[in-house]
């Protein structure tokens, strides 16, 4: 750290957001003792905090003090009541998520290169898996609940899909099995980005963590590069932190575009309406809001279930309705607890003992956007996921198919004998129209917002970043988090975020293969 003549503290790299991607970058960039690295993180530390570190406690972190709790604008064809949890703690969402860990499928990355993202092909990106420090292992035998074991057997039999022992062993077109998780089976602790990347290096003299510190405006330096950031500390005081090399924006798919827009980087017309001075007219900032929408089908079980589990949703299912294609087009999580947040609101009973399946749309076609409501940095942005609005009705049909397939699994032994009755939507809800109406009203998010500062080709008018993750038209800033995704990977995206961050470290160091200047 150094102090400039203007009284600003200066580092080589300033990382905004010590979350999933930010933790990886902080560890990688500070490996070089000559690089002074600062992390500006809005939340507190996770060190020693069992509420965060114990993976199975994840569900209690939703809507807690560790959650920024974003809401959406009205969703006329979906559920307007979804609470979009985003973590406010070191490690970001990897500190309060379920740590399900899938490598992206090769075709997911090929899609990125088709969008002009040179250097993001599967041959270049997938080998970064060998650098990942999180402990990714299939759910341990001791954590495999008998009802989840029987779900896997029933899904394989009912839908004629293979049982997969390790979803990361090779790309899979469909299949069912226990997930791989980033955790320590012996203790039940997380192997989050913070635990795996930051905890071991926190004593590096060249790494500074500025916790409970909120970044709210990027500022230019004397040369016009945007390498300064105004922050507010927990006590309300403000200061400016400066990067002598680069600012790395890792605040996540909602807060990264929010900060850019507050800094005058975004759709000029809209920002002017809020009286924000324009630094760069980038119409793609906040566009391309992607997610995995899901719905839920709930059963009461014949009594209490055995207690063991890693995080209560340890197994799942991938289905390919179109068997001519290489990737699954429906995914299910199996919960061995009744996840009733949306069904209870609709008036369905909450069984004491129950399970559910949550079919989701792996590559949803309804694409949303987000925008600022005002120039006030404390006012939360508006999120409009436009759930179930794609003109072909693909997303809606996927959920209807999912609910029907879930029932087929539930009718199959050995799962069938565990189940007493279907609680929601209930067996009387049968037609496609009824299933769609229920499925959309009870819909939820898999908590995977992404895409709001996408990278892309130079002729893509909505691309915010070049394929080296540099902001278009603004010097000194890269974005490294889930907002860079041009399209949504088929699978749960955390590992893809980790791979993006590992790749970004090489791009910053100038050692990345396949990168164009
Ligand atoms: C409940 C839940 C369950 C999930 N389960 C899974 C799963 O099992 N598997 C999976 O693959 N994915 C899962 N996900 C999604 C996955 O966790 C995220 O996609 C991924 O972690 C996002 O990483 P990120 O680096 O983009 O953002 P984050 O990890 O959210 O990091 C952003 C960080 O920036 C900080 N920040 C934001 N704004 C500012 C600011 N202005 N100033 C300072 N700091 C700021 C935040 O506090 C946070 O630490 C889940 C998400 C949630 C919420």
TrEMBL record:
List of residues binding FAD: 89
Q: Which InterPro entries match?
A: FAD/NAD-bd_sf, GMC_OxRdtase, GMC_OxRdtase_N, GMC_OxRtase_C
Q: Which UniProt keywords apply?
A: FAD, Flavoprotein
Keyword Membrane belongs to the record:
no
Q: Where is the Glucose-methanol-choline oxidoreductase N-terminal domain?
A: 252-266
Cofactor(s) required, per the database record? FAD
- Protein name as catalogued: GMC family oxidoreductase N-terminal domain-containing protein
Organism annotation: Streptomyces chumphonensis
The major lineage groups are: Bacteria, Bacillati, Actinomycetota, Actinomycetes, Kitasatosporales
């Amino acid at each position: 750290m150094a102090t400039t003549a203007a009284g600003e503290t200066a580092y080589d790299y300033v990382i905004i957001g010590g979350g999933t991607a930010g933790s990886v970058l902080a560890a990688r960039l500070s490996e070089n003792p000559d690089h002074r690295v600062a992390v500006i993180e809005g939340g507190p530390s996770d060190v020693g905090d069992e509420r965060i570190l114990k993976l199975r406690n994840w569900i209690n972190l939703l809507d807690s003090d560790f959650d920024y709790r974003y809401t959406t604008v009205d969703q006329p064809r979906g559920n307007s009541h979804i609470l979009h949890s985003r973590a406010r703690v070191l490690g970001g969402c990897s500190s309060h998520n379920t740590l399900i860990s899938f490598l992206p499928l090769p075709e997911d990355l090929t899609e990125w290169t088709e969008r002009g993202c040179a250097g993001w092909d599967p041959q270049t990106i997938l080998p970064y898996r060998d650098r990942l420090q999180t402990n990714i292992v299939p759910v341990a035998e001791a954590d495999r609940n008998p009802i989840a074991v029987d779900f896997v057997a029933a899904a394989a039999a009912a839908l004629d899909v293979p049982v997969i022992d390790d979803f990361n062993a090779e790309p899979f077109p469909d299949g069912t099995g226990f997930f791989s998780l980033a955790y320590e089976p012996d203790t039940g602790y997380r192997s989050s980005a913070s635990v795996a990347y930051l905890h071991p290096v926190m004593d590096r003299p060249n790494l500074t963590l500025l916790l409970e510190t909120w970044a709210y405006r990027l500022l230019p330096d004397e040369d016009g590069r945007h390498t300064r950031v105004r922050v507010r500390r927990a006590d309300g005081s403000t200061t400016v932190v400066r990067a002598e090399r680069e600012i790395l924006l890792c605040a996540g798919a909602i807060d990264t575009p929010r900060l850019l827009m507050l800094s005058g980087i975004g759709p000029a017309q809209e920002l002017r309406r809020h009286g924000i001075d324009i630094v760069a007219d980038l119409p793609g900032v906040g566009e391309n809001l992607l997610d995995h929408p899901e719905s839920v089908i709930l059963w009461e079980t014949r009594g209490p279930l055995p207690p063991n589990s890693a995080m209560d949703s340890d197994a799942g299912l991938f289905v390919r309705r179109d068997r001519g294609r290489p990737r699954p087009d429906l995914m299910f999580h199996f919960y061995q607890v009744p996840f009733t947040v949306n069904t209870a609101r609709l008036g369905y009973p909450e069984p004491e003992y129950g399970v559910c399946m949550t079919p989701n749309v792996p590559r949803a076609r309804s694409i949303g956007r987000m925008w600022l409501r005002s120039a006030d940095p404390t006012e939360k942005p508006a999120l409009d996921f436009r759930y179930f609005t794609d003109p072909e009705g693909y997303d809606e049909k996927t959920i209807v198919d999912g609910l029907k397939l879930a029932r087929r699994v539930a009718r199959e032994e050995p799962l069938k004998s565990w189940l007493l009755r279907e609680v929601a939507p209930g067996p009387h809800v049968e037609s496609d129209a009824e299933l769609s109406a229920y499925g959309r009203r009870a819909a939820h998010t898999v908590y995977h917002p992404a895409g709001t500062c996408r990278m892309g080709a130079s002729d893509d008018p909505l691309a915010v970043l070049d394929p080296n993750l540099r902001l278009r038209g603004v010097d000194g800033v890269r974005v490294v988090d889930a907002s860079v995704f041009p399209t949504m990977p088929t699978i749960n995206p955390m590992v893809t975020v980790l791979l993006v961050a590992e790749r970004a470290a090489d791009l910053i160091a100038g050692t990345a293969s396949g990168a164009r200047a």
